[in-house]
Amino acid sequence: MPISYKRLWKLLIDKDLNRTQLKELSGVSANVIAKLGKDEPVAMESLVKIAEALKVDFGDIVNIENGESENE
């Protein structure tokens, strides 16, 4: 299941935050931030902490890519 956190990185740019600031704001570990950077799965608890810290919905930070285009 291909996971993408592109939405998270775009959101950080919009909010003028970097990854270190995200780590401190959300309380997740550096390991979690590293996994996010590699589009690797992380615990749901970590994603919820990030969403709450950024005051966004879960779908605003993660996307499941199924390999099909939206037109199909």
Describe this structure in words.
With 72 residues, this protein is mostly helical. 50% of the residues lie in helices and 6% in strands. It has a single domain (3-63), classed as lambda repressor-like DNA-binding domains (434 Repressor (Amino-terminal Domain)), CATH 1.10.260.40. It has helices at 6-14, 19-26, 30-37, 44-54; strands at 3-4, 63-64. The chain has a two-stranded antiparallel ribbon. The radius of gyration is 12 Å and the shape is globular.
List the helices and strands and how they pair.
Layout: E1 3-4, H1 6-14, H2 19-26, H3 30-37, H4 44-54, E2 63-64
Antiparallel strand pairs: 1-2
Pfam families: HTH_26
GO molecular function: DNA binding
Domain HTH cro/C1-type: 7-65
